[in-house]
Each structure stands twice: as C-alpha cells, then as structure tokens.
Amino acid sequence: MTLTISGHHLEITPALRSYVSGKLERVIRHFDQALDVKVLLSVDNQKEKALRQRAECSIRVKGSELFAESAHEDMYAAVDDLADKLDRQVVRYKSKLQAHDHAAAKHLMQEK
Predict the structure, then answer these.
(1) Residue 66 sits in a domain of what CATH number?
(2) Is the pTM above the cut of 0.70?
(3) Which one of 59, 68, 75, 106 has the fewest CB atoms closer than 10 angstroms to its CB?
(4) Could you report the per-residue pLDDT of 70-96, keeping only the tens digit for each?
C-alpha cells in the first residue's frame, strides 16, 4: 500500500503528516487490501471561513475506488471527519464483499 499526502496552498508539516497517517491507519486496519491511498489537503479562498480547510481522500481497492471529502474551519477537524467518513465506507464495502463471498460459497455447497 502506498500513502500519498499532498497539499494545495498548504505546506504539509511533519506533525500534520503524522496526524493524517495515524488517522488513516484506523481505516486501513479495517481493510488491509487497499492498494493506493491519496490524500489532498487544501485551503480554499472562500468568504466562508467555516469551510476553508478541505481534506479529500481516495482509496483504490481491488475493483473499486472509495472517495470522501470534508471541509471545516480547522484542518485537524476536517481530517477527523474525513477519517470517520472513510471508516464507514470501508466497513460497508468490506461487509458487502463478505456477504458476496458467503453467498458464493453457499451456492457452491448447494451444487454438490
């Protein structure tokens, strides 16, 4: 798995990099088959200061891609919200895969 963290109009500090990777470890712990994880942290020039800090992430898994984004006035809060969204998506995707595998195994057992 490769983790790429990049910034747009924002310098990625070591503290921010370690915070993002720590939050994404929780997501990857649920699903270890992720091939590629790309995180984009940016600061938008909006009049609303509440939604200036944005965090986006796309996780490429076998046969699909999961994407989430979050905006907040604090970058760390945006990363927290992003991790929560990704965690829900990964758990849903994993349960869907397990249900499909269980149904396929049940079908194979019935054929014998």
Answers:
(1) 3.30.160.100
(2) yes
(3) 106
(4) 999 899 999 999 999 999 998 888 888
